[in-house]
Amino acid sequence: MKSLIFGDSLRLGLAALVIAGVSMGIAPEARGQFGPPPAGVEINPDGILRIRIVDRAIDQQKREAAKRQIDSDLASVSPLRKVSLNRLEGAIAQCLARGESPTEAMRAMAGLTAVRYVFYYPETQDIVFAGPAEGFYTDPTGRVRGTESGMPTILLEDVVTALRAYRPGARGVGVIKVSIDPTEEGLRRYNRALSQVGSAGPGAAQRIAETLKNNLGLQTVSIDGIPATTHFAQVLVEADYRMKLIGIGLERLPMNIASFTDRSLASSGSATAMERWYFEPSYDALLVSEDGLGMELSGNAVRLVGAAEMVAADGQRKGRGRGNRASEEFCAEFTTRFSEIAEAVPVYAQLRQLIDLSIAAAFIQQQDYATQAGWEMAVLMDESQFPVETFTAPHQVETAVNAVWKGNTLLTPLGGGVVVQPKRALQQQFVRKDDAGKLVAPRDSVAPRSADPHAWWWD
Q: With helix as H, strand as E and coil as C, how does 100-165 read?
């Protein structure tokens, strides 16, 4: 099993409290020319997630080396690169037959950084993804990223995970979900610790945060709809965990977005209230051709929504409807500026990619493209031939707690989750029909090159 470090650029306040047992303040001189050093989370062999920071200089060296080594055609920036999924599988099958592994270009989907279109061509029986692309490299954290933009590259293993969730002839999963939750025992200890805080005052905030963290203990990671040992699952967990850190003010985005705690608008009610935030798709982000042979994804298909819970003395959690004003404002700004955030912090671009891939896979299944194409997906659906369940499953995360005083009230927010219902996005009320023929021009420009039936990607 792989122990993966997820990396990207993050800025953490110099006065940040303790996260996962490590002080996350970064001195200005360490930030370098291109902002703060690459950082992310890692999952150890015991399945426990933690924060890690790596050297930016190494990242830059790897990027420059990749620019010199990568094939010139792949290195070029393309506004609309095309990848035939069934031709790609054929090329992979040829590699395996020769006793070779799939190439890096195959694993990086020829450098695609987004899927903007899904098309089916009955005349050639090609199922095609199309979107922007560029050269790529693997940064020191293991994330594959564009050499020019730094945006993460779509990975074939994530495509395969999505296709397996919606394989031909199967029902397809209803929900792909990640949740990070404290245990009931941890919440009981947490409540007891809160009751002893008394009137310690703001000067004791860091000591209180550490006490609360220790009482909560490790939180439980649950994953539904996809195997927990896939890269797909790892990205969802990282996005979930780090969104919570941002919300409670323990990770700072590289743009001016106030956290939930920064807004100083939290409820002055019970200190046992939990604010929880969930990523979900914007389910009205699809444009589908009238003949059902194409779909466009908007590229802005992620939103953050909030909910609030009460925690009883015995650790039981109960929903209490909408969050407070600070929570609503935090979620609204995160959603409105999600594209900006994704450009600066790659894990959120990856989250958007995975939501798009899930919807694209569900669309391919709904339209029955594989059957029409005579594509059995014999290699990609077979874990023994193309393994994707190769990572350590994340079971627990170390608790992150930020203690903030508002007047005489101690605020200790918690929360997080990702919930994706791809088939919901394909329901009639959410799909926009392409009455104006907007998809005709891109579909014609994407058409496979008949001159070389073995070419699995083209510009």
A: CCCCHHHHCHHHECCCCEEEEECCCCEEEEEEEECCEEECCCCCEEECCCCCECCCHHHHHHHHHH
Q: Per-domain residue ranges for the chain?
A: 5-458
- Over residues 264-279, the pLDDT tens digits come to 544 444 444 566 788 9
pLDDT at 40: 55
pLDDT in tens, 74-104: 888 999 999 999 999 999 999 999 999 999 9
Within 10 angstroms of residue 392's Cβ, the number of other Cβ atoms is 20
Between the CA of residue 336 and those of 209, 298, 329, 375, what are the distances in Å?
A: 31, 14, 10, 39
316 C-beta neighbours (distance < 10 Å), count: 12
Q: How far apart are CA 414 and CA 417, in angstroms?
A: 11
Residue with tokens 């693997």: 138
